[in-house]
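Case study.
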Amino acid sequence: MISVMFMEDHNMEFFDYLFEDAAPGDLILVYGPPKVGKSIFCYQFLYSSLVGGEPCLYIVADYGSRQLEQRMMEFNWFLRPYIQNGDVYIIDLLTRLAGVKVEDSGTLKFSSVQNLTDLMVKVGVSTRSLFRKSSKFRAILDSLTVIFAFNPPNLVLRLLKAYKARISEARGIGVVVHTTGTVEPSIENSLMELADLKLCFDGEKIQAESSAGEKFVQYTITDKGVKNIRG
Amino acid sequence: MKRTYIPKLDDILGGGIIDNASVMFSAVPGVDYEAFGYQMLNGRLKDGDKGFIFTNVAEPETIVYEFRSYGWDLEKFLQDGQAFFVDGTSPFMGLPSDAKYSIKDYSQVEEAIMEAIEDVPDGIGVINNLSTLIDYLGEDETIDIIKKWNLHGKKYNTSLVYLFTKWDYNSNLIQNLKKSMDCVVEIKTIEERVIIGQGFMVAHSSWSEPSDTMVLFFVVQPGGVKVYIPKILVTGPYNAGKSTFVKKISKKSVSVDRKALSAFPTTIALDIGHLEYKGFVADVFGTPGQERFDLLLDVLGKESVGAFIIVDSTAPQTFARAKEMIRKTKAEAIPKVLVANKQDLPGALSPEEIREKMKVGKDIPIIPAIVTEGRGVTDALEALLGLIYGD
Ligand SMILES: Nc1nc2c(ncn2[C@@H]2O[C@H](COP(=O)(O)OP(=O)(O)O)[C@@H](O)[C@H]2O)c(=O)[nH]1
Ligand SMILES: [Mg+2]
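After joint prediction, the assembly is written out as follows.
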């Protein structure tokens, strides 16, 4: 059954529908080929969460935290105020690698794509703060592609298990983005098994799959982000 | 013997590590423990020993930077040639490496570290990170290689320090790793949700019989690993039995009378004790029950890892106050146990009746006690430790 809804600016109903079967503590896998809007969907998820008063952790693994802000600005989603008042924690895995000397601050932390031990330390620190701040929060990891490129795949799966345990312990909802075809099928299968809810993007529709069943929405990408179209 | 430069660890190990020890720091994911390896290396370098770092987690430059943030000057030792890197990161990231050894393929790791060990006789080598090695090389091969390195370390009188993140490996592998080491230090978090601390404990040492003490620590920049003694709060309404409880639970205790800073000088009596129980060490603070001292509750509550709320089971009229105190001590967020005291007196309510009247959730254990006779005190402590360590 597919419900048809109108999209507000932040697509709240759209999300409500897709995430209907997700409970606090769940891990959601957003996956699909490159350039189908997975990251934009994440920005939107992040922004709608912040607007709705739920704090977030955002792990940027494929680009720097600066770029995150800039990319979101293209959709008129301004992150700065939320960074300043501590509603969003960002862990940046690439800026240091680029040779930029940067210091951690309260809500902006730098780690490295190869140092998964350190990444988990920072995830721990951030989720604890979020847990204290709010009974509900979201954590988004965009994406696994670069992490997979620089680590043995089994180690990345181990990281995800620890990550999932951490988020669910703190009663958050975790979103992890994966680009299909970047790892072996067996690893991809293990990834799918870890997820409580899977959202498959193909450029036209998002297919949601969980133990509660399957459903899909058709979507398009506009300057307001990922929007559903009546199907 | 060589020092570890980790506070408290040398005491527990009986003075330090044997010169050619293999030591593994084994940490659950999420614990900040890299500093353990780096602090040991820094201390040894400062003592004039030679040393190396094998890294597959960060480029040498980043590690130098990290050392600096702890207040340690690794660069100087690198320039003097007293320290060097075995770089297993840069080549994988497509970055140039000017390290003494740089590894382009994992098949070169074994040999590179063998040579590095020979380069630092009587010195120290730090392997960061062992887990990544396992997932590249395979479990059996890693164990074989570690055994060779450790033998080589024995021969050249070199200490080898491994940083190991305990991802979801099978217990067999972990057992085998432990068996390959002279010493294993476990590092864990206590009560994850509202972190109250990280602790280390020596699980095994071939040259001493370490106590099973859990030492709480935090990592600061600058400074490195610092240990601290956690506080346990004892609170509750006036006359409930707090002072008596602090005395009974403590190895030693004192009552401190202090002039309160107020217009009307009154005395604040703080009961302070120190407890040691099954490897757990803590300072115990009994708060005054009167409302005018509530500000103090807030301060003490923030620093505590757990709390005992003492109530007089014959005085239900004080229960509302007890609940208020729980709130004021911020004890909402920390593990706590309710002690239903004075069970010897007629009319004492049972734990169930108290739970009902006070409307406390099942997550808070209520332990019946006669504190004056010392009864229920150990039960209460066991219950609190169970909550803190999550059993
Ligand atoms: N009968 C009985 N009296 C107790 C018990 N525990 C404490 N008391 C008495 O209750 C009074 C108050 O105890 P105290 O520890 O000073 O209470 P505080 O004000 O909470 O520090 C003292 O006279 C204690 O001897 C108990 O289990 N049974
Ligand atoms: Mg007293």
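Observations recorded in class. The first strand of chain A starts at residue 27 and ends at 32. Chain A has eight helices and ten strands. We will return to this complex in the next lecture.
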